[in-house]
Design brief:
Order of helices and strands: EHHHHHHHHHHHE
Distance between the termini: 6 Å
Radius of gyration: 22 Å
């Protein structure tokens, strides 16, 4: 009987339907949680301390908060694209990087910066404001994006659900990140809630703007932390090991 060493490969540890498991589990969430809360707190306190034009510049589209969000998505995209060269779960990594690039494009307002009007408006497609060629090009791009998102959900929705149920840190970070982004976007239509409790309209608009921008940056930072946690856990699963087989 002879022992044969079989090298451990990525396919044995990180597959399409597997979720890389963190050794330290929830303990690894402490640094990201502190960072996200720190970013959220600093943004809100700074915005409240500023007044007039200074606050407007801080919260503007090209201001520090928007720039920080954009840089976070750039970092996520670069990290995941670079990690794909390790050939670990390449399809998942590249598709996630593509979605990060879409979030970056949304943050930079590419949906209305290069077109006659916003591509998420039905009027863009059904009215005569935009040219036929512009509508065709945008429609092709939008169909490609929809196909990407449907394929991603079909392949990996179960993976995220299992990861959330098993408290996988990077999956929890993804959930927290998107929750903050969605909450930030929802702030646009919540002026009435502040007015109900007696907050003046102008002040409520200012509060909503501060909360919206701060939550969007904190959400982007949470997604960046999720990318780092995922890469770290995937590399641990891929670390060379040998398992003896008796023949």
């Amino acid at each position: 009987m002879k022992s044969v060493a079989v090298p451990y490969t990525a396919s044995m540890g990180v597959g399409v339907n597997s979720v890389p498991q963190e050794t330290s589990r929830l303990g690894s969430l402490i640094p990201p949680a502190i960072l996200v809360l720190l970013v959220l707190g600093v943004c809100m306190v700074t915005a409240f301390m500023l007044e007039g034009d200074a606050r407007q510049q801080f919260l503007a589209e090209s201001g520090p908060i928007e720039t920080g969000s954009a840089l976070s998505y750039v970092a996520i995209t670069v990290l995941l694209c670079g990690f794909s060269f390790w050939r670990v779960d390449r399809r998942f990594t590249l598709q996630t990087a593509a979605i990060s690039a879409l979030l970056l494009a949304r943050e930079l307002d590419c949906h209305n910066r290069f077109t006659t009007e916003g591509v998420f408006r039905s009027s863009f497609y059904f009215r005569n404001n935009a040219s036929i060629s512009e509508k065709i090009i945008v429609s092709i791009i939008m169909i490609g994006i929809i196909i990407l998102l449907i394929d991603y959900a079909r392949r990996y929705a179960g993976r995220y659900i299992r990861g959330a149920l098993s408290l996988t840190p990077w999956v929890l970070c993804v959930g927290a990140g998107f929750a903050m982004i969605v909450l930030g976007k929802a702030m646009d239509s919540s002026t009435w809630a502040f007015e109900v409790v007696g907050v003046e309209q102008q002040l409520s608009i200012s509060l909503i703007n501060i909360l919206e921008e701060s939550l969007e940056l904190a959400g982007a930072v949470a997604l960046l932390c999720a990318s780092v946690l995922y890469i770290r856990s995937a590399l641990r699963e891929r670390s060379p090991r040998a398992k003896p087989l008796n023949s």
